[in-house]
Amino acid sequence: DAGVIQSPRHEVTEMGQEVTLRCKPISGHDYLFWYRQTMMRGLELLIYFNNNVPIDDSGMPEDRFSAKMPNASFSTLKIQPSEPRDSAVYFCASSPDGRFGGELFFGEGSRLTVL
Amino acid sequence: SQKIEQNSEALNIQEGKTATLTCNYTNYSPAYLQWYRQDPGRGPVFLLLIRENEKEKRKERLKVTFDTTLKQSLFHITASQPADSATYLCALLSGGGADGLTFGKGTHLIIQP
Which among A43, A45, A49, A56 is the top mutation candidate for probing chain B, defined by the most B β-carbons within 10 Å of its own β-carbon? Predict the structure, then answer.
């Protein structure tokens, strides 16, 4: 299996622009997670899906952030409009079983810089 | 509030020695705890999981202990090698029955030859 695939790997944009990050989870994994990592706050859970349905989006910082999972093999995280404080590495992870100790398989991340 | 604390300072260990990393938590009652390794520019990679009813878990040169009374997990790497240099993260299931893992900020381990 190719693992969790994220794109783009790097994104540099200007404040106010829309940013869309993409994720393809491992086939057969029922759970998909979006995390954000910064030096100050570490890894923060933004939102997760179970069988394509959003379960908990309490970590989404603001209404500017939205996430979708239209099918089992694709998810997007959108920031509109972007701000400099959104600069971070965004990770997507999938798991065959998010409950009861299921390990997470992370992608390589999307490094976002908002100028 | 819930907290997961790992030593934020880098840990320097001489090659061949045992490296011990600490994860402390407050206001959690985790059923299990996980450890991940993260290399620069890469995503975290799962290493070990230990359940609340397990005191110790081993995998090759890795050993994890879990003390629910002390609310602490220790992560040991024996016979450490420079290739073990990385950031190590501990993670707990988020409170409130949610499925997402909450991560500590990690400890940067440097194994010096």
Answer: A43
